[in-house]
Amino acid sequence: MIRSIVRTATALTVATGLWFAGTPAVASAPPVVFVTGGAISGRAADGIVEYFGIPFAAPTGGEARFAPPRPVPPWPGVRPAREHGLQCPQNGYLPGLPPIGPTGEDCLTIDVYAPDGARDRPLPIMVFFHGGGYLSGSNTEYDGPTRMAADGDVIVAIPNYRLGPFGFLSLPELAAESGGATGTVGIQDQQAALRWLRDNAHAFGGDPDNVTIFGESAGGVSVCTHFAAPGSDALFAKAIIQSGPCARAPLAPGDRAEGFARSQRYADSVGCVDAATRLACLRALPVATLLNSPSARFDGRTPVWVPSIDGVVITRTLDAALVGDARKTPLMVGTTSAEGSLMVAETDYARGHVPDAASYERFVRQSFGAYADRVLARYPLDRYPSPAAAQIAVITDSQLACPTLSTSRTARDAGHPLWQYEFDQAPLGDANPVLPGAFHSAELLYLFTRFMGVPIPWTGASAEFAAQMQRWWTTFAHTGDPNAPGSPEWWAWPESTGPGSDGPALIMRATGSFMNNDFADRHSCAFWSEIER
């Protein structure tokens, strides 16, 4: 299952000593710009200008709860934009932990990072959608695309969007009051942020016709979902999908009827059982009550809240959307080499359990049912140094690596220019007992320069590698091709040579990145294609 909770990795890396407290940057006089709603003042530091907590839509409480985003009301005077806004309502990711910051229903804000002096020329805009399984996360965590913006000469914007039942509740009553749209307001929030950027790009020096959307985990699936949402077609020109495949994704948009059934069970669980008054009941309940249902908390395995294919906002499956994209949008698609490490840390270690032979077999049987014996034979314990390593391999291959390869094949066959990568750098080392290898979300520790205000202290080869990662991403935003002078050559996938034919993947390592053609074999993708049939 796809779970990109960077703060889980952050908490664990804090415990293992990766982080250190940095010295706050010295800010200069706050620049003032005019955007939809009024004037805002940001903060200049480290070669960029930061604008935090800018409202791109109205508050979402009361009658606006579960409703599509509404225009932002104007404010008087100059609004300070130097602090992150509220996170959208959510529980803490792990049992017993609170959210990492203040939450509330006035949460539809966007953070913008622009190179100092960017208003002198139109720059590419990169919009990052955070992960969190559609249950948690916010732009507060990702407050450090500093070097990406300054050195890459791009504008980076990170919006919040509604989560869990607040973002994906799907009921007939909601469809009736919204022209058929239901179970999609989280995606509509993302669209509202993209429209706001299109309308306000000039204020920051951005080019509204050169927008790259990128995201990791649920954010990567969000990128896929915008291909299935016709209202997004004119809002982006390029896309980067990180550990959130469009094919066979657990967080992919589901059937409308399934969304209705899930949401009706949720309404029952919080005491709103009468269909005639259900929506009014849900809108009147305190946020804490709405979050007190088991379905509003991540259980570590089964995704609960996903968008619905409502026929209005989202009109097709993600595979069909890539095929039907007449623009042939350029794509970068990739995974990490040990995706499952973070999932095992979340579902086992964080709950006080070390995987053993019995729990590994139980995991496989619960996950794959009638196919369990075949999976156990393909991934026998005697092939791995520990039961945890076997479980990591099964999760990595079945849930992310092979679905990503399928996504690449579909996109390439549909005519998309495509570059695939496999991130293979272990931030904490391959032998780390809790988060070994290149775990799910590990690449973000090299793309961003801060998390939750804490600098990432890379030095030497690791610092050079982080700069190279940022250069690949920002070069792609500029040109639609990640290759640039001085960068390791990254081959695009060639045109299809027949069913199942693959292109190469760039193996990304601090010790030297290189092209490789055995991705499908290393991750047993032929085996998993049989299991998925």
Could you give a short description of this structure?
The chain has 533 residues and is an alpha/beta fold. The chain contains 18 helices and 16 strands. A hairpin with a 2-residue loop joins strand 1 and strand 2.
Commentary on this structure:
By secondary structure, this protein is of the alpha/beta class. Helices cover 34% and strands 15% of the residues. It is built from 18 helices and 16 strands. It has helices at residues 6-16, 146-152, 164-168, 172-177, 185-204, 218-227, 256-269, 278-284, 287-290, 318-324, 340-347, 357-368, 372-378, 387-413, 444-447, 460-479, 519-522, 525-531, and strands at residues 32-35, 38-41, 43-45, 48-55, 78-80, 109-115, 123-129, 155-159, 206-216, 238-242, 331-336, 418-423, 450-451, 454-455, 505-508, 514-516. Strands 3-4-6-8-7-9-10-11-12-15-16 form an eleven-stranded mixed β-sheet, with helices on both faces. Strands 1-2-5 form a three-stranded mixed β-sheet. Strands 13-14 form a two-stranded antiparallel ribbon. Strand 1 and strand 2 (38-41) form a beta hairpin. Helix 12 (357-368) crosses helix 13 and helix 12 runs parallel beside helix 14. The two termini are 18 Å apart. Residues 1-27 have low confidence and may be disordered.
Compute the gyration radius: what is it?
22 Å
Shape: globular
- Proportion in β-strands: 15-25%
Percentage of residues in helical conformation? 25-40%
- The N- to C-terminal Cα distance equals 18 Å
- The total count of helices amounts to 18
Number of extended strands: 16
> Largest sheet at a glance?
11 strands, mixed
The secondary-structure class comes to: alpha/beta
